[in-house]
Automatic annotation (TrEMBL):
Lineage of producing organism: Bacteria, Pseudomonadati, Aquificota, Aquificia, Aquificales
Protein name as catalogued: Thymidylate kinase
Catalysis: reaction(s): dTMP + ATP = dTDP + ADP
InterPro entries with a match to the protein in the record: P-loop_NTPase, Thymidylate_kin-like_dom, Thymidylate_kin_CS, Thymidylate_kinase
Stored PANTHER family: THYMIDYLATE KINASE, UMP-CMP KINASE 2, MITOCHONDRIAL
Keywords on record: ATP-binding, Kinase, Nucleotide biosynthesis, Nucleotide-binding, Transferase
Entry's family note: Belongs to the thymidylate kinase family.
Domain Thymidylate kinase-like: 7-194
Organism: Sulfurihydrogenibium azorense (strain DSM 15241 / OCM 825 / Az-Fu1)
Purpose of the protein: Phosphorylation of dTMP to form dTDP in both de novo and salvage pathways of dTTP synthesis.
Gene Ontology MF annotations: ATP binding; dTMP kinase activity
PROSITE patterns in UniProt: THYMIDYLATE_KINASE (PS01331)
Pfam families documented for this protein: Thymidylate_kin
């Protein structure tokens, strides 16, 4: 069985950069690795991602948003994550169910029991072996978003502050799995920390 590593954080935290860097490092040293993301890790998921991140004139209810994320996740688990783990790959995902808990429960306010039940339903027992949470102040993260903001990025600073606090609460509850990294450090410093932790845990 392979290893499942996830990267989490608010928009602009640098998680995508580190996920890609780890994938490139592993493939360069001859380890079977696969880089994916949520939403959008499959062909169907790309369509769902487009719906989720586009701006719409119609009201986009929080429950509909939650269900679309879970549909993407279940397709992702069955088509990418589970098959590759069975082939002994290291699967690296840019976001997984912690993002749903942070965004849809802590920021949107959907009851935790609903979000948790749907997370478990969609993942079919798949859990990350280790999760790296890149944490930094919301204002600093938003300075890095030098592009047109998507629907979620366009939410106010208060919303993203709730997301950040939600991630930190998850990390506090799951200290063994979730490793908090200082997103204000240089990309090289952060990546070296990631490698050291993976080596300490005998993942590398």
């Amino acid at each position: 069985m392979g290893v499942f590593i996830t990267f989490e954080g608010i928009e602009g935290s640098g998680k995508s950069t580190q996920a890609k860097r780890l994938y490139e490092y592993l493939t360069n040293i001859g380890i079977k690795a696969y880089l994916t993301r949520e939403p959008g890790g499959t062909s169907i998921g790309k369509k769902i991602r487009e719906i989720l991140l586009s701006h719409w004139e119609e009201n986009f209810p929080s429950i509909a948003e939650l269900l679309l994320y879970q549909a993407d996740r279940n397709i992702h688990v069955n088509n990418i994550i589970k098959p590759l783990l069975q082939q002994d790959y290291i699967v690296i995902s840019d976001r997984f169910y912690d993002s749903t808990t942070a965004y849809q429960h802590y920021a949107r306010g959907i009851d935790y029991s609903i979000v948790d039940y749907l997370n478990k339903l969609a993942t079919e027992g798949i859990k990350p072996h280790i999760t790296f949470l890149l944490d930094l102040p919301v204002q600093e993260a938003f300075k890095r978003l030098n592009r047109e903001k998507d629907r979620l990025e366009s939410e106010g600073l208060n919303f993203h502050q709730k997301v950040r606090e939600g991630f930190l609460k998850i990390a506090d509850m799951e200290k063994d799995r979730v490793i908090v990294l200082d997103g204000l450090k240089s990309p090289d410093e952060i990546f070296n920390q990631i490698l050291n932790i993976l080596k300490e845990r005998k993942i590398l």
